[in-house]
Amino acid sequence: MRAMSAFDSVIATTFGSMSPHMKRVGFEIISLIDGVCLARLPYRPEFVGDITTGVLHGGIVTTLLDTTGGAAVLSALDSPVALATLDLRIDYLRPSVPGRSLVARVECFKKTRNIAFTRGIAYDEQESDPVAAMAATYMLHTQIARAPSQP
Amino acid sequence: MRAMSAFDSVIATTFGSMSPHMKRVGFEIISLIDGVCLARLPYRPEFVGDITTGVLHGGIVTTLLDTTGGAAVLSALDSPVALATLDLRIDYLRPSVPGRSLVARVECFKKTRNIAFTRGIAYDEQESDPVAAMAATYMLHTQIARAPSQP
Amino acid sequence: MRAMSAFDSVIATTFGSMSPHMKRVGFEIISLIDGVCLARLPYRPEFVGDITTGVLHGGIVTTLLDTTGGAAVLSALDSPVALATLDLRIDYLRPSVPGRSLVARVECFKKTRNIAFTRGIAYDEQESDPVAAMAATYMLHTQIARAPSQP
Amino acid sequence: MRAMSAFDSVIATTFGSMSPHMKRVGFEIISLIDGVCLARLPYRPEFVGDITTGVLHGGIVTTLLDTTGGAAVLSALDSPVALATLDLRIDYLRPSVPGRSLVARVECFKKTRNIAFTRGIAYDEQESDPVAAMAATYMLHTQIARAPSQP
Predict the structure, then answer these.
(1) ipTM value for the complex
(2) What counts of helices (H) and strands (E) characterise chain C?
């Protein structure tokens, strides 16, 4: 496994801490290398969407994927810029397993002057059995920083 | 404005309360009539995505839209069934205004035997100037209830 | 019904004719007013996706919606610019009826400096019973003109 | 490279031929193994979206991806079933190169009782530099066969 660059380390350390919502939910970047971000949310009873099953609320899954994608995009750029999620698609593949933390792996696989493209998955046990899949685009150089991917 | 039916009233009253995450974030259904749901989240400092601007985190916007869509689908059906968000697309149109609560309006405009289709918007001031637009499909009669739209 | 402006009339007349594919498939703009485009494709045996049913191929439905959206965006702008479809989501709601021409209605409901947002439907009989729903974003001021929405 | 199974070979041979639209545009399956389909469309002047650049129309790219996804899903199943595209998202990454045929690679990475999930790309030169990315879901066991993925 490659080590994070100095730039990626700064992003990984500061990204979650600038967003009250990300701090509140316990968002944590595990690794961030060359446009690929691995990040995690803990399992918490307050994230449950259905009290009878203990399954996570879909909004939690989407929040993790959206934020992880923003970090992946920043890592893929040469210098820090303002960015904002432009649009995002989530496919929910199966219910999450109660009690397990949720991990997202998102890569920025293409960037143009103004747009970055990402795709990723969220899983709770094995990467080969994901809970959700995502595709999202992020706008670069936004004048007013927007929240989703701008912690 | 038409009154809610008895079935819609029951959904509106119980929908948010079965989900710990929805209770935690303060989700509230304003009205639910014939497959159209209007719902609200309060503005809270803990929902902020960017501490320098006070703008809401995109995940909060998506969570509201996903849940409002689930309620709209239930209202469009003749009897309660288990349902789960299958996939969802969000377009972020502009940053939210700090301090304003967020309102979503989602309609279920088509249902087949197994799938319900919805579209909606989220806004913080005027419905004509939305913060985000969404399109989502929900799977009906799911065997294991999943979280996003199954409170 | 309002009349088309001179600018809209020019777009409506020239839009389809600059694209060999649109000419080939018989794309025709019915009306184009203030960012809302109504356009049509004829039913042709060569567009059929399933020989046993006569139902149109989904790619034909998407092609009509994508192109109609491009025209709607142009109409919403003050002056002609290069544009390209950035991403597009289609929900297929039901099979089309064999023998019926396909009509799309797409509106550009939001534009920023670089991005235009659209939503629309395609139908073959009544607008209230659509065949497909779409949401798409278009990039404005593209340096190299791309095909989908660049007639 | 593994060989196609007998079931995959039958699909690969018959898939395009049942759809007049796919025959018309020259759709051809290159390989189909275990839920992964590689397919091709030739470059033809009639597919051009912009006469000034020779770039393919976006609808052609989408048509190829949608159909390739349908074949991938069939290959992932144990026995032939009726299927229909439910929804599809395309991200357009760059203009295609005039004169080059278009290749799509789509994998079915998850199937449930009623839904199959796919993702893929289209490219004209190198798989590492795609023209478009897609994510699509297909409905299985549809009662009335629909066109997009029902050859």
Answers:
(1) 0.89
(2) 3, 8
